[in-house]
Amino acid sequence: MKIRPLQDRVVVKRLESETKTKGGIIIPDSAKEKPIEGRVVAVGNGKTNKDGSVRPLEVKVGDTVLFGKYSGTEVKLDGVEHVLLREDDILAVTGSEAAS
């Protein structure tokens, strides 16, 4: 399914969290926390300023981002969980994308 978020909204697919601790203990699904890291799969056109101009988003498709634990709205697209959130809810861009 194709999705195009509106304005300053971003669709993020959560990245899988570790299933084993550094000490080798396997974490059961019921004890796992939802990951706060994900990959951007779609972005809106940008935020509309008070003067009517549109400010483009700083994140782009393919960026790996960190977001708040309780941020956004969870949606299922083609059976896969995604999070729909505003750009303001994104805390940081991680990895090599952050250097540019």
Shape: elongated
Which superfamily, in CATH terms, is the homologous superfamily? GroES chaperonin
Kindly report the spatial arrangement of strands forming the biggest sheet. Answer: 6-7-1-2-5-8
Could you give the count of β-strands? 8
Q: Strand count, sense and closure of the main sheet?
A: 6 strands, antiparallel
Indicate the low-confidence ranges by residue numbers: none
Summed up, the domain count is: 1
How many helix segments?
Answer: 0
Report the mean per-residue pLDDT as an integer: 83
- The CATH class assignment is Mainly Beta
Elements, N to C (H/E): EEEEEEEE
Using the 3D structure, state the CATH architecture: Roll
Radius of gyration: 15 Å
Distance between the termini: 30 Å
* Portion of residues within helices: under 10%
Summary, kept brief:
The chain has 100 residues and is mainly beta. It contains no helices and 8 strands.
What does this structure look like?
- This protein has 100 residues and is mainly β.
- The strands form two sheets. It has a six-stranded antiparallel β-sheet with strand order 6-7-1-2-5-8, with no helix packed on it. Strands 3-4 form a two-stranded antiparallel ribbon.
- It has a single domain (9-15, 29-99), classed as GroES chaperonin (10 Kd Chaperonin, Protein Cpn10, Chain O, Roll).
- The chain has strands at 9-14, 37-43, 47-48, 54-55, 64-67, 73-77, 80-86, 90-94.
- The two termini are 30 Å apart.
- It is built from no helices and eight strands.
- Helices cover 0% and strands 38% of the residues.
